[in-house]
Amino acid sequence: MKPNCDYHMHTPLCGHAEGAPQEYAAKAVACGLEEIGFSDHAPFVVKPLPGITMKPEELPVYHKMIEDVRARFKGRLEIRIGIEADFIPGFEAKTKAMLDAYPYDYVIGSVHFIKDWGFDDPAQREKWSEHNVNAVYRDYFELLRASARTDFFNIIAHPDLVKKFGHRPTQDMTKDIEQTAKVFQETGVAVEINTSGRRKTVGEMYPALRDLTIYCKAGVPLTFGSDAHKPEEVGCDFDKAVDLAKKAGYKEYVMFKERKIYRRISL
Ligand code: ZN
Ligand code: FE
Ligand code: FE
Ligand code: ZN
After folding, report:
1. pLDDT over threshold 80, residue 1
2. Residues facing residue 256 across a β-bridge
3. Beta 222-225 vs 252-257: how paired, if at all?
4. What is the mean pLDDT of residues 144-166?
5. What is the β-pairing status of strands 106-110 and 5-6?
6. Where are the beta strands (DSSP E) in the chain?
């Protein structure tokens, strides 16, 4: 059985996704999903990032857009409103104020930056050569733990995004992931299986089986997301995502409403 919901998808407001929300919703209905949630890139709190995140003044537009598509699909598809927000140390107050300004069904926390380096940004890819891969991985997992501890987020996105371009650590990261899983369990955040990694250089989902097994053992809840940036990516590779979840030991996944888990579905 495939998961019945996809909680990670974007809208053109971020500047690098295409297709209207109703096209994403129509694709979801066509693949037999019962529920989806939009999670576009929240305004960046440090400085404007055109083409990467929404602008603050676009937030009301975003909410209106999702309310409209929700009304259109009433009775055919449940539509949640989420958002994907970056965790930037030192900008917690600004992040909290932004996230508190509107109601969400869930907030996805992401680490796309180590200091001011967007390590997963294709335009900044060559900066990898200036870094020690092991150190980047350790910094990345430390930021994941810090983001969970903020209490701003319900789901932590693509929890090994650092592998996106195929850089692999030479040191064993098991301890770092175990520590991360423990913090996730203690702080009550869920992890997602994000299928978009299969469409990137690394060619595999986030997170890898080894990591997901550790999250499962620690008792961290699970969600599914395609990270669709175009309508046809909604629900992409969800059959393979379920296989991965089961292999890792997961028996169920969770669904969110008003920032709380409201349903648990057996796998
Ligand atoms: Zn994006
Ligand atoms: Fe992301
Ligand atoms: Fe995303
Ligand atoms: Zn994402």
Report:
1. no
2. 261
3. unpaired
4. 98
5. unpaired
6. 5-6, 35-41, 78-86, 106-110, 155-156, 190-194, 222-225, 252-257, 260-266
Length of the chain: 267
Q: What's the distance, Cα to Cα, between the start and end of the chain in Å?
A: 7
Domains and CATH numbers, the chain: 5-266 (3.20.20.140)
Task: Please name which of 4, 27, 1 lies closest in space to residue 228, comparing C-alpha atoms.
Answer: 27
Rounded CA gap, 78 and 120, in Å? 31
Structural contact between residues 5 and 242, judged by C-beta atoms closer than 8 angstroms = no
pLDDT tens, residue by residue, 141-150: 999 999 999 9
Q: What proportion of the chain, given as a percentage, has pLDDT over 90?
A: 99
pLDDT at res. 229: 98
**Lookup: tokens for 142:** 């430390």
Mean pLDDT along residues 71-86: 98
pLDDT of 151 > 80? The answer is yes
192 to each of 39, 73, 103, 216, 266, how far by Cα in Å? 13, 25, 21, 11, 16
CA of 194 to the centre of ligand 2 (A): 9
pLDDT > 90? residue 2: no
* Ligand nearest, relative to CA of residue 38: 3
DSSP state of 87: -
Q: Which of 61, 51, 59, 48 is nearest to 20 (CA)?
A: 61
- Distance, in Å, from the CA atom of 145 to the CA atom of 133, rounded to the nearest integer, reads 19
Distance 263 CA to ligand 3 centre (A): 23
**Nearest CA among 249, 250, 223 for reference residue 238:** 223
205 Cα–ligand 1 center, Å: 16
